[in-house]
Specification:
- This protein has 372 residues and is mostly helical.
- Helices cover 65% and strands 5% of the residues.
- It contains 15 helices and 4 strands.
- It has a 4-stranded mixed sheet, covered by helices on one side.
- α7 packs parallel to α10.
- The radius of gyration is 31 Å and the shape is elongated.
């Protein structure tokens, strides 16, 4: 272990000499995450509904109803002129020959679907008000004719769904992305530069070399994850995500400890995969060819888990990486499932041990280390 610590210090000194790597690990996640939320408008307050311009040939109760909700209206008698849609979005055609009220919408407009849904929604409200007014004028008890309306009230609804889904995903991204360069360079890079032989001829066990490089890669990877969390805190401070600060209320000392242990165990699993690939690869380029497919598969799984009701999240909830993401989501939402969290941590550690055992076997084989 002493040799591993000495090698760890040596690796960290070499790593932090690279100023570009420091910027990539610290400032990039710290700035990049708030920028994504800001420029995509995720979590902003709901924008006020856009009011359309309504054209009509004969004023009817429906048009009068729309005017009460500040819709701008304009009267156009000629139907052919109205259908040109010069400065209006909807043309309400009231035919005196029948009771059918026709609404013409310019389908060439990109927001025509939204216009149609808005008009339908307002018409349903208008119809209810119109029927109730008519029944009252006829002195008929409306509750004997119209069934009661329902109002669905959500309780125990999470206010931090955006944060709870995206934060674990970004943590996974930065655990991987920050570890890829350092992890592959730590062994495969030294093979390529012919500097690994210098370590191997010293009186240091190969296991100590392997664990020293493991710890240094984990440190870099965790640093990126920590700064990604700090980037989320920026969102809290500047209120880019409404109600996101309520997530902090779920972070009791126990919850924070569980969250941190999950990240640590997940980081061990990520780095062990990289160390295994780096031990087998002859060059950094070859290692990148092996790790990128794994990286993309895990990202796809991570995006699928962002919807906890997806088939992947439900059917593969106990799989590595997926269970870590789901456990972090549950903690952020205040839903603590102790047995599931324990299984997540234990499974991450077990898979890490298995992968490191395989990496140790490869690292002790001359045919693997010095293969051409």
């Amino acid at each position: 272990m002493r040799d591993s610590i000495l090698l760890f210090k040596k690796e960290m000194i070499a790593i932090f000499r690279d100023k570009r790597l420091i910027l990539t690990v610290t400032l990039v996640p710290f700035i990049f995450i708030p920028a994504i939320f800001y420029f995509n408008g995720i979590g902003r307050n709901t924008k006020p509904e856009k009011k359309f311009v309504i054209a009509y040939n004969e004023k009817c109760p429906y048009v009068s109803f729309l005017e009460k909700y500040n819709f701008q209206t304009v009267k156009i008698l000629d139907k052919s002129d109205a259908l040109k849609f010069d400065a209006w979005d909807v043309f309400v055609y009231n035919s005196k020959e029948d009771t059918l009220l026709k609404l013409y919408v310019n389908a060439a407009k990109s927001n025509s679907g939204g216009i149609i849904k808005t008009m339908e929604r307002y018409y349903l409200s208008f119809r209810d008000v119109y029927i109730k007014d008519k029944l009252k004028s006829m002195q008929i008890d409306i509750y004997k004719v119209i069934p009661p309306t329902i109002k669905i009230i959500r309780i125990n609804e999470s206010k931090n769904s955006i944060v709870s889904f995206l934060l674990p995903f970004f943590i996974l991204i930065y655990l991987f992305s920050n570890a890829i360069g350092v992890g592959l360079d730590s062994i495969a890079g030294e093979k390529e530069r012919n500097t690994l032989q210098i370590l191997l001829v010293n009186r240091i066990s190969r296991e100590s070399i392997l664990f020293g490089k493991l710890f240094s890669t984990m440190t870099v990877s965790l640093t990126g994850a920590i700064f990604s969390i700090l980037g989320i805190l920026v969102l809290y401070i500047f209120k880019i995500i409404p109600n996101a600060g309520s997530t902090l209320l779920n972070f009791t000392p126990v919850n924070f400890s569980l969250f941190s242990i999950i990240i640590l165990s997940l980081d061990m699993l990520v780095v062990s995969i990289l160390i295994l690939i780096s031990s087998y690869s002859r060059t950094v380029k070859e290692g990148q060819g092996y790790i990128l497919p794994v990286y993309f598969i895990i990202l796809i799984l991570g995006m699928a888990v962002m919807n906890p009701d997806s088939s992947i999240a439900v059917n593969f909830a106990n799989w590595p990486f997926i269970n870590s993401l789901l456990s972090m989501q549950n903690i952020l939402n205040g839903n603590i499932h102790t047995s599931y969290i324990v299984w997540t941590i234990v499974s991450n550690i077990l898979f890490t041990i298995i992968i490191l055992k395989i990496a140790t076997i490869l690292f002790n084989r001359e045919s693997i280390i010095f293969r051409k």
